[in-house]
Automatic annotation (TrEMBL):
PROSITE patterns: TYR_RECOMBINASE. Signal peptide: none annotated. It holds the Pfam family Phage_integrase. Transmembrane segments: none annotated. It comes from the Bacteria. Residues 98-292 form the Tyr recombinase domain. Belongs to the 'phage' integrase family. Gene3D superfamilies: Intergrase catalytic core (1.10.443.10). It comes from Aliarcobacter cibarius. This is Tyr recombinase domain-containing protein. Keywords: DNA recombination, DNA-binding.
Length: 299
């Protein structure tokens, strides 16, 4: 990260006292247009990666014994320079904030029914069904082989590309039924999701483009930026709905809330802090109900 963004910078060999804040603003804007090759395609660096690169260089400078730090307040800087950098930070942070939207169970049902209606969308239906009932990441779904579905233990052997490890997901009855329809008489080593070109020998390279288009049509008419629903929202919805639970008209839970520690395991998060940060905020009434029950018991 340092080498790509800072060591290759023309001003990387210049003394700090000779670098102005505007030079960093220009470099960061330049970085936002840099590209790299991924899957034989030229793509831009993510906003999160760029933001981390800025935090890295700020930390390096902060721990360097220098009188003048071009990334912090200093009399030599103009107010405009300060504001330009603040605006840049603000824009990057806004773009990397976690999505606040999620789909309610009724909305997920609509999505699944819409996909299931047309045979040409059947693989998309399978993808959404697996994500909605396991919280699996999209690239993990694409990597699934038929042998990963263990009927006896009711689990799915899943590879987490982010943590570079395998973990177990629960295999639900509906997923088992639907997967059985497309895996009958097929080799166990074949990938579950195929195209007319791969025929199961290699995995489907990308998610079907129609999925996000259908999600847009159903749920994004008045949503913008991080508030929009995308395919990845199904992972977010899985966890959020389990944390919140769902009450029926009589006030009783028809979907029992799941503890945040179990959600951590289901999503294969490395740290509970990640799970708490993203999902506990959606279930404040769950905490209130639990505290009230505790209070009633001890008084």
């Amino acid at each position: 990260m340092y080498k790509i963004f800072w060591q290759n910078w023309d001003l990387s060999i210049v003394e700090f006292k000779k670098i102005q804040q505007k030079h960093f603003v220009e470099r960061i804007n330049e970085i936002r247009n840099l590209t790299y090759i991924k899957n034989n395609k030229e793509v831009k660096y993510s906003n999160k990666y760029i933001f981390n690169a800025i935090i890295l260089i700020k930390s390096i400078i902060n721990h360097t014994n220098v009188d003048y730090n071009p990334l912090f307040v200093h009399p030599k800087k103009s107010l405009k320079e300060e504001q330009d950098l603040k605006d840049l930070y603000k824009d990057l942070k806004k773009r990397i904030e976690p999505r606040t939207s999620y789909l309610e169970p009724e909305e997920i049902k609509i999505l699944l029914e819409t996909l299931r209606e047309k045979p040409k969308y059947f693989q998309g239906y399978i993808i959404c069904l697996i994500m909605a009932t396991t919280g699996m990441r999209p690239d993990s779904v694409l990597n699934l082989r038929i042998k990963d579905f263990d009927i006896r233990s009711k689990t799915i052997n899943t590879y987490d590309f982010k943590r570079k490890m395998y973990y177990k997901c629960n295999l639900t009855k509906r997923v088992e039924e639907e997967v059985s329809k497309i895996s009958v008489n097929r080799n166990q080593d074949e990938f579950l999701l195929v195209s007319e070109y791969t025929k199961g020998l290699t995995k489907l390279p990308n998610m079907p483009k129609y999925l996000n288009r259908i999600i847009d049509d159903l749920f994004n008419k008045d949503r913008f930026n991080n508030n929009r629903n995308v395919l990845y929202t199904l992972r977010h919805s899985f966890a959020t709905n389990l944390v919140k639970g769902k009450k029926g008209p009589d006030g009783k839970y028809i979907i029992e809330p799941v503890s945040i520690f179990k959600i951590q395991k289901l999503l294969n998060h490395a740290n509970i802090e990640t799970t708490i940060k993203h999902y506990l905020k959606f279930a404040p009434d769950f905490a209130i109900d639990s505290i009230a029950a505790f209070e009633n018991y001890i008084l």
